[in-house]
Specification:
The structure is a single chain. By secondary structure, the protein is α/β, with parallel strands linked by helices. It has one domain (2-249): Metal-dependent hydrolases (TIM Barrel), CATH 3.20.20. Helix content is 42%, strand content 18%. The chain has an eight-stranded parallel sheet with strand order 1-2-3-4-5-6-7-8, with helices on both faces. Helix 8 crosses helix 9. The longest helix is centred in the middle third of the chain and has 18 residues, at 104-121. It binds zinc ion (ZN). Residues 6, 8, 35, 92, 200 line the site of zinc ion.
């Protein structure tokens, strides 16, 4: 059994949501944690969480929206999180300097405000950090967040160890199946106890399906790759990562 700790489930990508859910279940992906990270997405995914038992949510504003989100939106977010029992965390939130740092200060401000909400509500966070390791670590250290995931982790061993020491798990997805992935080498020096599985679907489809739309049903492919890296049965990868994800989200 598996948990996909990070995916995007929207009509924009999938014609038939129910079909996606059923395919997940047939592939032993028992629970999925769907990320809603804009106002429109949040409204849509709340509906799926009500409709399907296997759908849980993390809600939060992506750094991309730092120029449009205001304090009123954050109050709306906080209220929704408090009122909906299937919201199990805040995310994806964080910093993205990949396309430049022009709005860096706004990103930092939005990130901090949402970390504050996570701290107040004692909820785990799902962190998006791209080309921004130093600031991410420095800011995370300022908050008493007890649990969290570094989504789509792709850094060095040293960075991985820093996050782990701070209590974070590493979200590992399709990238680990790509040819010549640096990640393999880093992972061999870490323990499965620090890892959770994710797809980030519809993006980052694992091999051999790269180039087509990703889905949570492919989580077992990522698990299989990890079973090769750690030289353990795939069921063990499933069991350990399932337990890790349950510990983080209490699901
Ligand atoms: Zn994502």
């Amino acid at each position: 059994m598996y948990i996909d700790t990070h995916c995007h489930l929207q009509k924009e990508f999938y014609y038939d949501i129910e079909k996606v859910i059923n395919e997940n279940l047939r592939n032993q992906v028992q629970k999925i944690v769907v990320s809603g990270c804009s106002k429109q997405e949040i409204i849509e995914v709340l509906q799926y969480a009500l409709e399907y038992d296997s759908v849980f949510l993390t809600l939060g504003f992506h750094p991309d929206s730092c120029e449009v989100v205001n304090d009123q939106d954050l109050a709306w977010l906080k209220d929704l999180i408090i009122k909906n029992r299937k919201v199990v965390g805040i995310g994806e939130i964080g910093l993205d300097y990949h396309y430049g740092k022009d709005n860096r200060n706004l990103q930092i401000e939005l990130f901090k405000k949402q970390l504050k909400i996570a701290e107040e509500l004692n909820l785990p966070v799902v962190i998006h950090s791209r080309d921004a390791v130093k600031d991410t670590i420095e800011i995370l250290k300022q908050y008493k967040i007890k649990r969290g995931i570094i989504h789509c982790f792709s850094g060095s061993l040293e960075v991985a160890q820093q996050y782990i020491k701070m209590g974070y798990y590493l979200g590992i997805g399709g990238v680990v199946t790509f040819k010549n992935s640096r990640l393999t080498d880093v992972l061999t020096k870490l323990s499965l106890e620090n890892i959770v599985l994710e797809t980030d679907s519809p993006y980052l489809t694992p091999e051999p399906f790269r180039g087509t739309i990703n889905s949570s049903k492919y989580v077992p492919i990522i698990a299989k790759k990890l079973s090769e890296i750690y030289n353990v049965p795939v069921d063990k990868v499933g069991a350990v990562t399932f337990k890790n994800a349950s510990n983080i989200f209490h699901i």
